[in-house]
Amino acid sequence: MQQPNPSFASSLSSVVSQPVVAAFIAGGIAGAVSRTVVSPLERLKILFQVQSKGRQEYKMSVHKALVKMWREEGFRGFMAGNGTNCIRIVPYSAVQFGSFNFYKRFFESSTGSPLMPWPRFVCGACAGITSVTFTYPLDIVRTRLSIQSASFEGLQKEAGKKLPGMWATMKGMYMNEGGFLALYRGIIPTAAGVAPYVGLNFMTYEAVRGYFTKEGEANPSAWRKLAAGAISGAVSQTCTYPLDVLRRRFQINTMSGMGYEYKSILGAIRVIIAQEGLKGLYKGIYPNLLKVAPSMASSWLSFEMTRDFLYTLKPEDI
C-alpha cells in the first residue's frame, strides 16, 4: 500500500488541529450522532407542535403516540425526515461549533483563555444565527417530510402514491409557494429562538461542566460530560421552547390541509393562546425534554472526543 506523502500528512494534521477547523469537523460528527439517537422523539415533537386545536390524531401520551407511529409506519416512520435532518444537522452543527470558536477570539483576553458566562452566551447566540442562516432551507424541508406521512385529517395523500423526497419537496416549495423566499419562511422566529437557545446551551454547559470537574482534575469523565450536556440542553430548550413552536407553525403555514394562516409572529402568538391556551406554546415539550437529554449529552461528548483527537493528531496517524 502506498504511504501518504509525509509533507501532505504534516500539512493536513496541522490544518485539522486548528481550533476552528477541529471544532467544525467535530461539530458535524456530533450533530449526526445526536440527531440519529433521538430521531423518533424528534419527529414526535414536530407532530405535537403542528397539531392545532380540534385535531385528535396525536392527542395522547408519548408512549401511545410512538406505538401509533410504529403501527402505522414502522421503522420508516421513526426515521421519517432523519436523512434530511442529518444532511442539515452536519453542516448546521459544524458551522455552529466552528463559528463559536471563531467569535470567541474577539472576547478572549489571551488565546485559549476561558470566557466568562455572558461572553459565552453572546458567542453562542451569534453562532446559532450563523448556522441556522446557512442551513435553514434543509430545516423547513425536514419539517415537511416529518409530517407528510402522518395521519392528520386534511392532509392530501393518495394510497400507494410515493411521497416526495427532500429535493422534490424543496423544488415544489420553490415552484409553488413563492420561490427562494419560500425556503426561508419562518426564519425570523427561528433565528429569534435559536440565538438564545444556543447561547444558553454554550453558557450552561461550560458552567455545569466546571461544577462537575473535581479540583485538580484537568478533564472531567465521560459521565460528567454527558450529565453536563443533558442539563444544558434541558435548561436551554425549556427557556426558548415557545419560539420553537412558532418556528414549526410558520414552516407549514402554507401547507395544504394544516389550516394555519398566520400573518405575523405576534398575531400567531395571539391566535395560539386564544385557541389553545398558554399550553399551546409548549405543545410537544414532553417528548422534547425526553429527547434533549440524550441528544445534547451525546452531542457534547462526541464533540469533545473528536475535537480532542484532532487537537493531538500527528502526521504518522494519517
From TrEMBL:
Species this chain originates from: Viridothelium virens (Speckled blister lichen)
Membrane protein topology class: Multi-pass membrane protein
Solcar repeat start and end residues: 18-106, 115-211, 220-309
UniProt record similarity statement: Belongs to the mitochondrial carrier (TC 2.A.29) family.
Top-rank lineage group of the source organism: Eukaryota
The protein, known as: Mitochondrial thiamine pyrophosphate carrier 1
Transmembrane parts of this sequence: 20-38
Subcellular compartments: Mitochondrion inner membrane
GO molecular function annotation: metal ion binding
Listed Gene3D superfamilies: Mitochondrial carrier domain (1.50.40.10)
Location (main, coarse): mitochondrion
Protein purpose: Mitochondrial transporter that mediates uptake of thiamine pyrophosphate (ThPP) into mitochondria.
